[in-house]
Structure formats: C-alpha cells, structure tokens
Amino acid sequence: MNPMESVVIAVPTYRRPELLARLLRSLRHEVADTGVLLVLGDNDPDRGDAERVVDSSDLRDACEVACIPVRQPGVAEVRNALVRAATRLRPGWEWLVMLDDDGHVPPGWLTTITTAAREGGADVTAGPVLGDLPAGASRLAHNSLYAGRTRHPSGPVAMLNGAQNIVVRRRILERIGDPWFPTHLGRAGGEDHFFFRAVLDQGGTLAWCDEAPVTEPTPADRLTAGALLRRAYRSNLVGTQTDLAFHGPVLTSRRLAVDAGWLLRKTASAAVRRDRDGLAEALLGSASIAGRAAGFVRRTPPDASHTGC
Predict the structure, then answer these.
(1) Which InterPro entries does the record associate with it (predicted)?
(2) For the chain, which terminal residue's Cβ has fewer other Cβ atoms within 10 angstroms, N or C?
(3) Mind listing the pLDDT tens digit for each residue in 92-111?
(4) pTM for the full predicted model
(5) What is the Cα–Cα distance from 112 to 87, expressed in whole angstroms?
(6) Among 179, 201, 219, where does a domain finish?
(7) How far is Cα 291 from Cα 238, in angstroms, rounded to an integer?
(8) 75-89 vs 191-201: helix crossing angle, rounded to 10
(9) Are 70 and 43 in contact (CB under 8 A)?
C-alpha cells in the first residue's frame, strides 16, 4: 500500500472562500497523485463555499476530495465531524493532517511533516505557523501570536499551541474516543488546548517538526489593540478551565503564580531598558494572566465571534 493512502488532510472552513482557494492552490502539488484524501468541513453549508471553491479548481484531478456539511456551529463540531468522515471515507487511514482554511503551505510541506510523524512516532506532530501581518501592523501585533507562534527544535515537546498544521496518529484518537474535541466550549475556542491535554492524559506524546511551516495571514480587524488583548484574555481564561479539569486547582494555581512572578520581572526589566517590544509583550502577558486568573472563578466560557474555523 502506498503510505500516503493512509493520510487524510482535514480542513474546517467557514465563510473564507478566498483564503480557502489560496490554501487549496498551495496543496495542489503536495497531494497530486499521492493517494491522499482531502476532506473539507463546511460550517455554513447553505452558502456552499467549500463545494464552489473546489469545483472552480482542478483539485479533483489531483486527489480525492470530499466536502461535508456541518450545521452545528463551532470549530470543535467541525473537527469532530472531520474525524468521523475520515473513518467513513477512508477506513484504513492512519494519519490525520489538520489545517485551518486561512493558511497556505510551501512546496514539500506534506512529505516533510508526515515523514517526521512516521519516523518520530509521536501521537501528535506539529509544525510552525508563521505570521503574515499586513503593512503598518502595530508593535503590539508584531509581538502577538499572529506574528508567529512559538517554535521549538524538532523533536519531543511538552505541549503544543493550536490545531493548525498538526498530524494526529489514529491510535490516540481511538484512545480518547468521540468527541475528540470538546463541544461544551461552544464558540469560545480553546478546543485545541483541551485536545492536547486529553492526548497527554491518555499517555500520548507530542512532537515538533520545525522544517514544515504553514504561513497564516491575519486580517487587520484582528490586530487592533482591543482585539489582541481580548484574544489573549479569552484564550487563557478557557485554557485555565481546561487545566483545572485535568490537573486540579493546586497545580494550576501554582503555575499561574510562577508565571505571574516571571511577568512582573519581565515588565520591570523592559521598563528599565525602555524596551518597547518587551513592554508590548508584557501588556499582552498581563491580559493573559488576567484571563488565567478569571478562569478560576468563571465557569462558563465567554462567547466569541464564530471561531469556526
């Protein structure tokens, strides 16, 4: 059996046809004649963006493509539907590659990340997400996760950040069981952090492949100071609730105290040195710490604009 026939690429999408079209163009040569299955989960199927974008491309000439409707809103619902679809459409699949609809991949990306997953043996292998900021983006934006998420040397890691550009081994999904991504979070986001905690809770392992990046552009409306601070606050609030569920209040509060102390020292150092980038990082860090503290007392995740993907 061609090893690539055991690979399914899963993409949740919601009302971003232009970005989805760019992603599919970048995937065209990655999947051509490989035997890979590509599944798109459309979270607004009445608009029909996924089908329309695929039909206007030549992607079906390159690989098998399926578009599935997901009417229940929220990215967790779509991710769960994509896992189910992979098993229904390709019963013998072994590796599930997850991408978001707003990124695009460089030549050689698929071979690089799937080879790292096979050879490394981890249950989830992730690659970098490189930021692509518009001209004139603020200093705060340039110090946010949108400028590029944390990178690591290739190899085992303790935690991952985000389900964009990951390869998941089937065995860990079978251990966790359906639903793999928590639907109780609704539209608040944070389903990826919960999933990674569930992987570790089931004895799974995480790894990094720094040679397989995805580039993700960010629209200007997500880069205002208010939007950046709200994102930092909200994601850490939900993340803390996940940590409480898996680790309890003692360990979670201890980690919060350590990180808050580190932030105070970092802020003081940046102020003394008049380091504007350091101060921008500290401001975002303060919003994150505030969100983590709020996570101890707020039990219902805050709603957000459709994070679906």
Answers:
(1) Glyco_trans_2-like, Nucleotide-diphossugar_trans
(2) N
(3) 999 999 999 999 999 999 99
(4) 0.92
(5) 24
(6) 219
(7) 8
(8) 60
(9) yes
